[in-house]
Amino acid sequence: MKRRTLLKASAATAVTMAAPMVQAQTLPVGPIRIVVGFPPGGGTDALARVLAQKLQVMWGVNIVIDNKAGAAGVIAADYVSKQAPDGNTLLMAHINSHALAPSLQPKLNYNVERDFTPIGLVGVTPNLLICNENQPAKTVKDLVALCKKNPGQISFASAGGGSAQHLALEMFKLRAGIDALHVPYKGSGPALTDLIGGQVQYCFETMTSATPHVKSGKAIALAQTRPKRAKGHPNVSTMDEQGFAGFDATTWYGIVGPAKMNPALVKRINEDMNRAMAMPDVIEKFDQYGAEDGGGSPERFAEFIRSETQKWAKVIKDAKVQVDS
Prior knowledge:
The protein is α/β, with parallel strands linked by helices. It has helices at about 1-20, 45-60, 75-80, 95-105, 110-115, 140-150, 165-175, 190-195, 205-215, 265-275, 280-290, 300-320; strands at about 30-35, 65, 90-95, 115-130, 155-160, 180-185, 200-205, 220-225, 250-260. Strands 1, 2, 3, 4, 5, 6, 7, 8 and 9 form a 9-stranded mixed beta sheet that branches. The protein is globular, with a radius of gyration of 20 Å.
């Protein structure tokens, strides 16, 4: 409800301000690219396409989704950081490229604060802690006990070393005081295949990827990883509710551009994003992917990125996480 209220308020502001601002805010000429750091078909790509479709109609300008997959979104982010700040090239930023990579990759070619212009938060998606139906522990409490009884032997899959799913596991290990076996895969697809097949026992996975398997009964959801329950899984309790106060390990998305974009252009794009995300059909589609609480100002998104970067830097340091760069 809070998200809807925020977006409606933002949309109302955008409508009242749009008329006098149109002349002052010139949109980019020619096609606009929204670069996505993951292959077509995933949650990041799907949300970018929903938003692009609406903005294309509003602006009367062709918007193309440009998939530059690789290095958990870092390749796409590096590319956009080097583009002209004219608004023709934007990035669907992701937790991996903008909150995790700065601490995981010391030789990163870009600086998140220096090389990008935050425009707007698109949405935040919980992870689900899941297992296959044959596992003995089907509550968080029982899982903690199982891990303590079998230190380093209970296996957790992830979409890759240094991914948001991997870092959710590291946060869990720190908070629960357990040792567990991390098994990285090259993406969510193979990780989920092996989880369901019984080659690995548990994993933290994005709600977008995990939901079809949970709904089919092939995977069991033990918990979700935001402090509040997502609308898509009202009957799955949170880690917070199961004894881990404030546990917050999510995947999130937002639109950024290269550094030094014209503030008037940033304001225009942000206002139109808020208008689009307040539309009922967009809210419905975002809810299907578990993406909530998007919208707000560029300043709100910038502060969100900073807080996420600080939070995960501490987890990475405390857990001594290292990945191949």
